[in-house]
Automatic annotation (TrEMBL):
Pfam families: Abhydrolase_3. GO terms for molecular function: hydrolase activity. This is Alpha/beta hydrolase fold-3 domain-containing protein. It comes from the Eukaryota. PANTHER family: 2-HYDROXYISOFLAVANONE DEHYDRATASE-LIKE, ARYLACETAMIDE DEACETYLASE. The lineage of its organism: Eukaryota, Viridiplantae, Streptophyta, Embryophyta, Tracheophyta. Transmembrane segments: none annotated.
Length: 330
């Protein structure tokens, strides 16, 4: 470890975005946050969930970790499909990281779904909108399994166990931002063979904008971490921090939430999360729009951002995961 640390120290720093990462002039990236990668498990001892890693696309490089709950041998009904997008500010974390793996094992066991946790390309190796394009490609790949004859990289877990009349999206933080943008796109563009999204859950969604909302401080608002992070991950975003992908409730240019391409939405927020008011505002505006679906808001007191993934063993985390599972089971 000592020699590696000296090697990093000797490198010339090009740029850093704390607390997330450092970039060096030789092209290497040092990620300062995030949990270690863990392998998939043929059978998780705690939940009975099986998982495996697959490649969706070689160019661009998109992969995923698939999850399958323990199946009742005498009951062969098809299971809902959850396409999941991990959080991490578009620049850290992974579908293969230990915290998301543990979280999804629990959610898949309780929600009785086949889950596809997407490994999209990260900043700074690949700036936005690459991640959005990867996540849409992954969603289209999942939808392509609805018919046997048009699947590239056919995946038996989806073919044999997936119910394509019950496809859900889910994500935390930046992943919840991706969920919103994929659902909006699905409301305008068709998924393969007319596959429709039933529902989407957004836990602690990463939204922001140039004007403070609710209790957000007006002083230093443009220097707040959510604002600086967006400038870092999508430096060429048209409209900057008011681009509809980060500010879906902006006054100019944001498409109506009425086109959201699913019939049920759950938004979860945490009391101590700096993004809390944005999530509540999103939920309220979704209800006010001409969107014809059913929306729910879950507020958890005393907790901070992504607590259900980062502090998995707490009672509040277990309660929220149970709530998400019931949303998938309904």
């Amino acid at each position: 470890m000592g020699s590696i640390a000296k090697e990093i120290d000797a490198k010339e720093l090009e740029k850093e975005f704390l607390p997330f990462l450092r970039m060096y002039k030789d092209g290497t990236v040092e990620r300062l946050l995030g949990t270690p990668y863990v392998p998939p498990s043929p059978l998780d001892p705690e939940t009975g969930v099986s998982s495996k890693d697959i490649t969706i696309s070689q160019d661009p490089s998109i992969s995923a970790r698939l999850y399958l709950p323990k199946l009742n041998q005498t009951h062969h009904k098809k299971l809902p499909i959850l396409v999941y997008y991990h959080g991490g500010g578009f620049c850290i974390e992974s579908a293969f990281s230990s915290d998301h793996h543990r979280f999804l094992n629990s959610l898949v066991a309780q929600g009785q779904v086949v889950a596809v946790s997407v490994e999209y390309r990260l900043v700074p190796e690949h700036f936005l909108p690459n991640a959005y394009e990867d996540c849409w490609a992954a969603l289209q790949w999942v939808a392509s399994h609805v018919k046997d004859d048009n699947v590239v990289n056919k995946e038996p877990w989806l073919m044999n166990h997936g119910d394509f009349s019950r496809v859900f999206l889910g994500g935390d933080s930046a992943g919840a931002n991706i969920v919103h943008n994929m659902a909006m796109r699905a409301g305008v563009e068709s998924l393969h063979d007319g596959v429709k999204l039933v529902g989407a859950f957004l836990t602690h969604p990463y939204f922001w904008g140039s004007k403070p909302v609710r209790s957000e401080a007006s002083e230093g608002h443009d220097k707040a971490l959510p604002c600086l992070l967006w400038s870092f991950v999508y430096p060429n975003a048209p409209g900057g921090i008011d681009n509809p992908m980060i500010n879906p409730l902006g006054e100019t240019g944001a498409p109506s939430l009425a086109v959201l391409g699913c019939s049920r939405v759950l938004v979860a927020v945490a009391e101590k999360d700096v993004l809390r008011d944005r999530g509540v505002y999103y939920y309220e505006e979704l209800i006010k729009s001409k969107w014809e679906g059913e929306a729910e808001l879950v507020q958890v007191e005393g907790e901070d951002h992504a607590f259900h993934v980062l502090n998995f063993e707490t009672e509040n985390a277990k309660t929220l995961i149970k709530r998400l599972a019931s949303f998938l089971l309904k």
